[in-house]
Design a protein that fits this description.
With 715 residues, the protein is α+β, with helices and mostly antiparallel strands. The protein is built from eleven helices and 37 strands. Helix 1 packs antiparallel against helix 2 and helix 2 runs antiparallel to helix 3. Its main location: membrane.
């Protein structure tokens, strides 16, 4: 009996010893994980946390930090698993509830996310973000209303790592990436165990390949490994060398897509972020990490570099940088007088806000100015870019589809107006940011992590518009009234900016609006609201004429107008005559035939083709846009596009080339909504010269396109 008792006691002691060893090992691994977490080395923290839970059940702190670490490296499914566990244990914690709600949105669990944000809005009404998110998700269909306006294409240069925030410098395509450069990792970022981010370039944008379909990545994942010993000391021969694998976010696509670094002068020791160039292209403002720790962190800072003898030099820290805080994501106005940026410095409206500094005589001033309520929310505002009087930025504090959504605002009345969500497909359930337009303003690039890691997409705007025409009359004499300010805004979206236009000397106005939408028009004369009008635009793209708006007061004893006036006696009443003081024709709404014919001839002279080809040059699109506008404004205009050449080459070859060029113009016009029955292409080759072919100047004049109009419905 004593022997049995002794054996049982021995087994208990052994079990306790094993348990103590496991508990001690779990504790030491968790301590190492906590250290990595506090140092923001989240990928390594995950490895140690996961190793620790193999030896002991995790406590709430381990679960919370594991959830947040996965969130920071954008492993959202794993993050949600742990945050959902925390929510079930600690349902009243605001930060846990908020993070879980965001993760539901990111995973497109919209109905669950609506309930989560509704609960947050009720429990924590002081934070307006929750109410914005709740209402936005309930009405998320509004973010898809313009989805046909844009097409997205996936860039072949994307890798399994992060590629993001492109900028255009001449023909250079400049972007940020933490890709594996030449198969050598010089520096690793502990945040996600990937290489430091550097600035890369594609020397010529025409060489960028846009894939018709987003490729399916290989199932092969990238891994990093850590050897884990039994405490926080160096490994010894007594340690058990456990291997913890860290999955690198995203799938390996089998192509490293090696591209040159943007500049050898930008030191590879730093981790780089978004940048911008001034309009002249000789100044660069960029984000990088500081070389010195402050309060245990390498904070972000903005530097300036100058282009001298084709080299980026004179690199210096901007004077407004405060070492204790992050300063990042610069964006400069086109006139070069303001530099916007993001910062987590105290005194803002949320976590990260947009600020700006003035630039005087090319020098950045030190005084920091808050960007204002239009650009900031109680959440984070990031990645600003500027195009003319338009400002684009990303926010997670305003109503959207999830993660960071891109917003647009315009400069009006000496301030930025209420921002508007850009909608799908530029925005998605994930983080969307870094939008930049090319010179045409119809094409550009945007970054999104909707596939799991940051990728760059090309987008093209192909917005369908309805030309809406109207006229304002003076009630006193029924004459057309100039100088009336007309505001228009979508009826169902009070947040959108009312864009003003002033009536011309003929009392007319025009808006290009979206089809099948409700709008409200407001008519102001001498700063007084005189009239309002509600309209619904049609589905078709033909011009839409509104009934005349009559404003002003009828004078006492004013005569009753019984006949419609016609000042130019062309048979078209002034109320519908676009040129009431010049005799015109009905198909041109009362304007002279010669005006349109002359303008079409001028526009045709500015349509150019590549040498010996039928491809339109980029500078041809602007005059053709005006041709399209004329055709839409006057639906009774029929157009013949004629192609002509000089006498260089054979007659048959020239005739074929001229026919192809005319057909190219016709195809372009039909692609923009002009019906084919109103267009005709004719190639005459060298048959109809307008100048001598004996001189280069004469031959240049003979290489041309002509546009000749005829009119229907003359009666």
């Amino acid at each position: 009996m004593k022997k049995i008792a002794f054996i049982i006691l021995l087994l208990c002691i052994t079990a306790l010893n094993v348990f103590a060893q496991k508990t001690g090992r779990a504790r030491s691994l968790a301590l190492r994980a906590h250290k990595e977490y506090l140092d923001e080395r989240y990928s390594y923290a995950i490895a140690f946390y996961n190793a620790s839970v193999k030896y002991d059940k995790p406590d709430s702190l381990v679960i919370h930090r594991l959830a947040e670490s996965y969130y920071q490296i954008k492993e959202y499914d794993s993050s949600y698993t742990y945050y959902d566990q925390l929510y079930k244990r600690y349902g009243n914690d605001e930060k846990i509830m908020h993070r879980r709600a965001e993760l539901l949105t990111n995973r497109k669990k919209y109905e669950e996310a609506i309930l989560a944000f509704e609960e947050l809005a009720k429990r924590f009404p002081a934070n307006p973000v929750y109410q914005h998110k709740y209402i936005g998700l309930q009405n998320r269909s509004q973010f898809f209303s313009d989805s046909l306006d844009y097409t997205l294409g996936f860039l072949k240069l994307n890798t399994a790592q992060s590629d993001f925030s492109p900028q255009l410098l001449g023909r250079n395509f400049v972007f940020i990436s933490n890709r594996y450069y030449k198969k050598v990792i010089h520096k690793q970022f502990g945040w996600d165990a990937l290489p430091f981010s550097h600035i890369y370039k594609v020397p010529d944008t025409t060489s960028i390949i846009v894939l018709d379909q987003i490729p399916v990545a290989n199932e092969k994942k990238l891994f990093n490994t850590l050897k884990i010993n039994d405490d926080n000391t160096a490994a010894t021969s007594n340690d058990n060398n456990s291997i913890a694998a860290i999955s690198l976010s995203g799938l390996y696509m089998g192509d490293r897509n090696d591209l040159p670094m943007f500049s050898e002068q930008l030191d590879a020791r730093f981790n780089y972020g978004p940048l911008c160039f001034n309009k002249a292209g000789d100044k660069l403002y960029f984000t990088r990490n500081s070389s010195r720790k402050v309060n245990g962190r390498f904070n972000l800072e903005i530097c300036e570099a100058q282009l001298v003898n084709s080299q980026w030099s004179n690199i210096k820290l901007l004077p407004f940088i405060e070492p204790a805080y992050d300063f990042f994501h610069p964006a400069i106005t086109e006139d070069g007088t303001r530099l916007y940026f993001c910062s987590n410095r105290p005194g803002g409206t949320g976590g990260v806000d947009i600020y700006y500094v003035n630039i005087t005589d090319g020098k950045v001033e030190p005084a920091i100015i808050h960007g204002g309520k239009s650009l900031n929310s109680a959440g984070d505002e990031l990645f600003p870019t500027i195009a003319g009087n338009e400002f684009f930025f990303s926010s997670n504090g305003m109503a959207g589809l999830g993660g960071l959504d891109i917003f647009r605002t315009i400069w009006q009345k000496n301030d930025w107006q209420t921002p508007v969500n850009m909608g799908y497909p530029l925005n998605s359930h994930a983080d969307d940011f870094g939008l930049v337009f090319n010179n045409s303003r119809f094409k550009g690039y945007v970054t999104s992590n909707r596939r799991g890691n940051d990728d760059i997409y090309a987008f093209q705007k192909q917005e369908k518009i309805i030309p809406v025409d109207g006229v304002v009359l003076n009630r006193a004499d029924m004459r057309r009234l100039s100088g009336v300010t007309v505001y228009i805004k979508p009826k169902r979206d009070t947040g959108r900016v009312a864009l003003p236009i002033t009536t011309t000397y003929t009392g007319s106005y025009r808006f290009d609006l979206k089809p099948n939408r409700e709008y409200e028009l407001q008519f102001y004369y001498r700063d007084t609201l005189e009239e309002t009008m509600a309209i619904v635009t049609p589905l078709q793209s033909d011009p839409y004429e509104l009934k005349p708006v009559i404003i002003g007061k009828l004078p006492v004893a004013a005569p009753v107008v019984t006949a419609e006036p016609d000042r130019d006696k062309d048979g078209i009443p002034d109320i519908t005559d676009k040129c009431p003081d010049s005799k015109g024709i009905k198909p041109l709404k009362g304007c002279p035939e010669s005006d349109i014919l002359k303008r079409l001839a001028e526009l045709a002279r500015n349509v150019y083709f590549n040498t010996a080809k039928a491809d339109l040059k980029p500078e041809s699109f602007k005059p053709l846009a005006e041709v399209i506008s004329i055709m839409k404004e006057y639906p009774d205009v029929l157009l013949t596009v004629e192609g002509h050449t000089d006498n260089q080459g054979g007659a048959e070859m020239n005739k074929g080339l001229s026919q192809r060029r005319a057909a190219t113009v016709v195809r372009y016009l039909t692609s923009k909504g002009i019906t084919a029955d109103r267009l005709k292409a004719a190639g005459y080759g060298l048959e109809r010269p307008i100048a001598t072919n004996a001189t280069p100047a004469g031959r240049a004049l003979n290489r041309r396109v002509e546009m000749k109009a005829i009119f229907r419905n003359m009666d």
